[in-house]
Automatic annotation (TrEMBL):
<keyword id="KW-0143">Chaperone</keyword>
<protein>
    <recommendedName>
        <fullName>Peptidyl-prolyl cis-trans isomerase</fullName>
        <ecNumber>5.2.1.8</ecNumber>
    </recommendedName>
</protein>
<feature type="domain" description="PPIase FKBP-type">
    <location>
        <begin position="4"/>
        <end position="79"/>
    </location>
</feature>
<comment type="similarity">
    <text>Belongs to the FKBP-type PPIase family.</text>
</comment>
<dbReference type="InterPro" id="IPR001179">
    <property type="entry name" value="PPIase_FKBP_dom"/>
</dbReference>
<dbReference type="Pfam" id="PF00254">
    <property type="entry name" value="FKBP_C"/>
</dbReference>
<comment type="function">
    <text>Also involved in hydrogenase metallocenter assembly, probably by participating in the nickel insertion step. This function in hydrogenase biosynthesis requires chaperone activity and the presence of the metal-binding domain, but not PPIase activity.</text>
</comment>
<dbReference type="GO" id="GO:0016853">
    <property type="term" value="F:isomerase activity"/>
</dbReference>
<dbReference type="InterPro" id="IPR046357">
    <property type="entry name" value="PPIase_dom_sf"/>
</dbReference>
<keyword id="KW-0697">Rotamase</keyword>
<keyword id="KW-0413">Isomerase</keyword>
<keyword id="KW-0963">Cytoplasm</keyword>
Length: 160
């Protein structure tokens, strides 16, 4: 079965950096599920999966513009320390989670004081060429409800 728009796709992945070191993997965890053709996945990953068959394994190396985006050198923000999640004591270089209008965002601490911190709001992996090893596990036609909502439901997808 070829992967096309309006299908729920389940896959496993391993993400590697420029040197081939593993940065992330869902190996040993639930598969990732998304609704294909609805901007729910990084553009480069979605493009590489389109037209492939269930059961295929492949690797794709993508530029920053098709994954986490290019780095923005002016992406510093001062925020209240109480808005940072993930640790009790903050030090420069640490990653933190911060709630924004667009949902949770990973930021990097640049400077930290008693009440305020300066953070870099670029994604930690922005500006890098990354390689994804992908294994397509399953695909099915999306339900009318999933298409209307614009995302996959159920295991690995969106839980309502």
């Amino acid at each position: 079965m070829s992967i096309n728009d309006d299908m729920v796709v389940q896959f496993n992945y391993t993400l590697r950096d420029e040197k081939g070191d593993v940065l992330e993997t869902n190996e040993g965890h639930d598969t990732i599920a998304y609704l294909h053709g609805h901007d729910n996945m990084m553009p480069g990953v979605e493009k590489s999966i389109a037209g492939k068959e269930v059961g295929e394994k492949f690797s794709v190396t993508l530029p920053a513009s098709e994954t986490y985006g290019e780095r923005n050198d002016n992406a510093e923000q001062r925020v209240s320390v109480k808005h940072l999640q993930g640790a009790k004591v903050w030090k420069p270089g640490m990653s933190a989670l911060m709630s924004t209008d667009q949902g949770q965002r990973e930021v990097t601490i640049i400077k930290v004081g008693k009440f305020m911190a300066t953070v870099d709001v670029n994604h930690p992996l922005s500006g890098r060429e990354l390689t994804f090893d992908i294994e397509l596990i399953d695909a099915r036609d999306a339900t009318a409800e999933e298409i209307a909502h614009g995302h996959a439901h159920g295991k690995g997808g969106h839980q309502h």
